[in-house]
Amino acid sequence: MTTAATDPRPLTGEPIALDLLNTRWMREGELTDLFAGAFGLTRVEGLAIWLHSAGLADRFRADAATLVHLLTAREALARVVADPTDAGARALVDAVLEHGRIRATLTADGPGERAEFDDPTWGPAWTAARNYLDLLGSAPDRIRKCASQTCVLHFHDTSRNGTRRWCSMQACGNRAKASRHYARTRER
After folding, report:
1. Distance of CA 136 to the CA centre of its chain
2. Structure confidence by residue, pLDDT tens digits, 130-141
3. What is the pTM of this model?
4. Which of 56, 3, 37, 18 is nearest to 146 (CA)?
5. What is the distance in angstroms between the CA of the first residue and the CA of the last residue of the chain?
């Protein structure tokens, strides 16, 4: 049950911070949560699917403690993405970041870095929070929420001109185009 093929989410492959936010999505008008027992999965099975999909399964275990810490990080990230000026949200992200650090290393290829955690169960949460800092450092204006009013997904706009509006052109983008077309044909 831990293969990427079994990941039921409509949008995967975003940077880890946004991918964590996208563990909650709308399905048939209802908010669905990968970590809340959706699709007959236990909460920890949902975590195992996410860890595998995010490429973290080989470094971290799917267990109850990791899930609690990851939910803490998801809530902190959701709040700070929704309102980057919210000091309380920034403090929550900082609190997650307190559980890890980057250690400089020297590798055969030259300088490197290695993440270290005071408790390994904080690893995925810290990794997601750290990834959010990386996104802010490179292109904060490219962190976006889908333009569909009925969608809660987030994405990192990697389009050349930075004008991506939809989590997926096949889903939300197509629905918006179809709605506009229907409205135009009704007006005639």
Report:
1. 14
2. 999 999 999 999
3. 0.88
4. 18
5. 51
